[in-house]
Amino acid sequence: MTQRHNALLVLDVDEVVLEFIAPFCQLLEDHGAKLHAQSFRLTGNVRSISTGEALSGPRLDAITQQLYREQEARQPPVAGAAGALERLSKRADIVFLTAMTPSHYDRRRRLLDTAGLPYPMIATERSKGAVIAELGERWSGPVVFVDDLPPNLAAVRRSAPAVHLLHLMASETFRAHLPALPSGTASARDWNEAETLIGEWIER
User: Fold this and answer.
1) What are the per-10-residue average pLDDT scores of the chain (204 residues)?
2) pLDDT for residue 140
3) 20 to 30 A Cα–Cα from 41, which one of 6, 19, 73, 138?
4) Is residue 177 within 8 Å of 150, Cβ to Cβ?
5) 149 vs 65, 104, 144, CA distance in Å?
6) How many whole angstroms from its chain centre is CA 192?
7) Which residues contact 49 (CB under 8 A, 6 or more apart)?
8) What's the confidence (pLDDT) of residue 83?
9) Which Gene3D superfamilies does the UniProt entry name for this protein (predicted)?
10) 3-state class (DSSP) for residue 85
C-alpha cells in the first residue's frame, strides 16, 4: 500500500461502506424467514415465517455465504460513504479491513470499485486489533478505525490503544440493542457525522 499521508483511516466494510442488514433481510425473505431484532445478534433472532422456529447457526451461515457470493447484485453502498471518503482521501490514506474469507475478495473488490470506493482492501479472518496494530506502526500520524461491531472496536482498543475509534452502523435495526462501546469510542449515525469526526481527528 502506497503511503501518501501521515494519517491512516481504516474502515470495516459491511454496514460501514456497504449495506449488509437490509440486503440480508431481503435474502431471508427468499428463504421464508424474517429477522426479529430482540438482541444484538443474528442467531436466535431469525425465524421461519411459517413455523416461527429459529434458524440454526449453520443455516444462517449458509445464507450469509450466499449473500457474499451475490454481493455485487445485493449490497449497495451506504449513503454518503463514497463522497465522504473521496474528500477524506485528500488528507488521509484509506484502507478497508473486511472480516471475510479471502475467497470472496474478487467479488468484493469489484463491488467496491463499481461503487466509487477504490481504496486498498485487506480481507482476513485475523483479529482486527492485530492487523491495525501492525498498520499503525507504518503511519506516523493519527490512525482512525471505523466499525459497526463493538467487539471489533474493543479488540483494536486492546491492541492499539492510541487509535481513534468510531462506531458507525448503517441500519437502525440493532441500534436499540447495541452493547456498550469501548471507553473513548465516538459514535456517528451517518456519514455526514462520521466525516466531521474523522476530519477533526486526522487534523490533530
Assistant:
1) 91 97 96 92 91 93 95 97 98 94 91 97 92 94 96 96 97 90 96 98 87
2) 93
3) 73
4) no
5) 19, 20, 15
6) 16
7) 32, 33, 34
8) 98
9) HAD superfamily/HAD-like (3.40.50.1000)
10) helix
The residue with cell 454496514 is 15
Give the per-residue pLDDT at 188.
97
Q: Residue 1 and residue 139: Cα distance in Å, rounded? A: 11
Query: Grid coordinates standing for 100?
Result: 471475510
Element (H, E) at 156: helix 150-159
Provide the pairing of β-strand 46-48 with 33-35. antiparallel
Count CA atoms within 13 Å of residue 56 on its CB side: 3
Largest CA distance in the chain: 56
8 Å CB contact between 171 and 151:
no
Residue 198 cell numbers, joined: 474523522
Q: Any idea which residue has 503511503 for its cell? A: 3
Residue type for 14, please? D
For 35, the grid coordinates are: 429477522
Instruction: Kindly give the pairing relationship between strand 93-98 and strand 8-11.
Output: parallel
* 30 C-beta neighbours (distance < 10 Å), count: 9
Q: How far is CA 17 from CA 98, 174, 188, in A?
A: 11, 17, 13
